[in-house]
Amino acid sequence: MLLKKEYALAGISVLCWGTVATVTKILAGQLDAMYALAFSFLFASLFLFIYNVKHRTLSKLRSISKGTLLRMVAVGSLGVLFYNLFLLLGEVTLPAQVAFLINDLWPALIIIFSCIILKERFTIAKLIAIVCSIVGIFISTSNGDFRFLLHTSISGVIFCSMAAVCYGLYCTLNKREDYDKGISVFVSYLSGSVIAFLWIIATGKFHMPTTADTIALAFNGIIANALPYLTWALALDIGNTAIIANLAYLTPFVSLAVTHYVLGEKVTIYSFLGLFLILAGIGIQILMQKKTDCSPRTLQELQD
Fold this sequence. Notes:
This protein is mostly helical. The protein has one domain (5-292). It contains 14 helices and no strands. It has helices at 5-17, 20-28, 33-54, 66-93, 96-103, 106-117, 124-142, 154-176, 181-202, 211-238, 241-247, 251-263, 269-293, 299-303. The longest helix has 28 residues, at 66-93.
């Protein structure tokens, strides 16, 4: 049985996003944050430009109205510029694992926002899936000790929460739009790159990167950003929002494997316990969706 296209696309996103923690940690010790974003977004824009040229969709920009283009920039800024900005600000005052934990609430927020904005039905299965996934994230990142939450920076928590809200809204609002997702992601990164470059030029931090930095920035821009953003937007566009959103909870465990083998970080029993709960949440969503697909409901009900 072939894997459904939306699950394959979401899987690519999960694998690529799993490299973010490792790449970000490497870059953070070498480059200014906004400088890294400027060049990363530039490489992302170039990759997406080539993608749209290859698929002959770039010409659609000519027929896009100014209002639609502004919506692309506005919605895209939530998921690219503001998401990364708030996450960086949060990581300044929070331990990496705490920032990662709070930021990883965005898949649950997608489900909630989809019910509010897209009018999708909120079911018991979705509630159970959200609870299982969030508890799994808490257990795996805290090693079973929730007391670490009592000693965190309030401003850092707020910034990371804002980052999660921004990306949750980005995914939800993007699904509502009918414009080409390849073009919209390209516009998002291009506008983000322009703003980031204007910032580093204005602050006097612009300089040409070294060869080693260029390779790292290209990897961050293409593999950790552009490719997964594109495949994620396409997956949400054609798949069930709740199920796709829950698949994102696998990202921390891909990240766990990458940081273990690349950075040598330790894997504990709590990581596997958290993984079990997260997989349970995803499984509940998929099983409930299959049950819905086999029931004699109307087309409109299935779309909800």
